[in-house]
Amino acid sequence: MAHYLLSVYQPEGTPPPPEELEKVMRDVDAYNKELKAAGAWVFAGGLHAPSTATVMRLKDGDVLMTDGPFAEGKEYLGGLSIIQAPDLDAALEWGRKAAMATTLPIEVRPFYWDDEPTS
Amino acid sequence: MPGVPALPAAEIERVFRAEYGRAVAVLVRVFGDIDVAEEAVQDAFTAAVQRWPSAGLPASPAGWIITTARNSAIDRLRREASREDRQAKAALLHAGGGDTELAEEDAVRDDRLRLIFTCCHPALAIGAQVALTLRLLGGLTTAEIARAFLVPESTMAQRLVRAKGKIRDARIPYRVPTEAELPGRLRAVLAVVYLIFTEGHTASSGEHLVREDLCAEAIRLGRLLAELMPDEPEALGLLALMLLLQSRRATRTTSGGDLVLLAEQDRGRWDRDLIAEGQAILRRCLRRNQPGPYQIQAAINAVHSDAPTAAATDWRQILQLYDQLHSLTPTPIVALHRAVAVAEVDGPDAALVLVDGSAIGGHLDGYHLFHAIRADLLRRLGRTTEAAHAYRAALDRTQNAAERAFLQRRWAGVA
Q: What is the pTM of this model?
């Protein structure tokens, strides 16, 4: 088994109307239940707005702190899932379902492991 | 050395090129790693260059290459594994040490299919799919692929390294898709092979209209697909289409490299063997009655092949086939080519209405053929000023030297 990061990319700006958002939340909930039932779920969570972020950066032996996200952009990381899957085809199938549930672009990216991945 | 025929280096290279895909496919199965497989086949090539000139060509060159490559890979991996190389350990573990059957024909066939579907995986960019397919299945060198696609060798090398890295790290599986996935995945494979052919047939830039090596390679891959998937009518349809297009190769340009239109080609110089082969394959797949875009395009080209003169072309049948193609794939490009057939059946004015209509006009502004076809219809209608404008628009949109020269001549004729 390998681990994959599924990142949800959200556009900057006003969120969709409540009734649309409610449907998305229901679909995402069902998606997470399906992941758990299949034994593929490792972790999932949604993030607060990028304006709540703080960046720590090493400079000349000191760690400097800046208010705000690492990169400003039109889209930002809105949430993520970590899943386990036997191969990319299986991970992409979860990614496809995530895109349908969230209605947002999903980036599927494999984890690099220092040790042999455990199954 | 009596009894042993001399084996020139070029012949060794030819054998390796022909067997490359087969050998790499088997070794990827054994070691689970494309780099290990490629390196092993390269080692076997070095060994062959030393041995074959004196020992002669082995009875089964493919079997010799695969066995030699496997042994060399195991030696190399054992050395590397003893230095705590994790990738080498993993590859050795994958090989399992046991003598798995290496060159048994059914297994090899499955290996090559698996490799094709891995190379043409939709998670890889189309350019990467093309490069991997030519490298791993076609056995072309990185330098050859770079030359064919007019990019620096270092760029092509990077593209291949990146694609192989993604296959390994993201775990793109080495397997034939399930029946449910197969239609979509097969379409992607056929699209890669046809892209290689069309890139060779009408190079998008450069001096020569036809880049022979790419056409020949695409046909070789098409034959392989037809052999590996004899029950897929579209795989056969693609092969038939490429053979029929290739049959007109010698007449598509003058000796000076100028473009010659289908209607003006010397039909006596069309390759009758390729036509006969293409038409036979087409009849075989059409009998299955599962029409698809490649089969219909092949059928359209077969109608052209059947016409002894351009004037004798059965345009009504071609239009019917375009109707069928358009109902399967209703794209602006298909609609544009259908309009060309409409011009022959109902006249250029009817065709121009279609070309400027909402299904075509506006969608294809960046495509030089749209403007060239429009220009030709306007020219036939005597609207020379508009035709000249359209030829100029076409000229602004192609870098191919032969096409540019042709459009220049047409433009000069109406300007």
A: 0.84
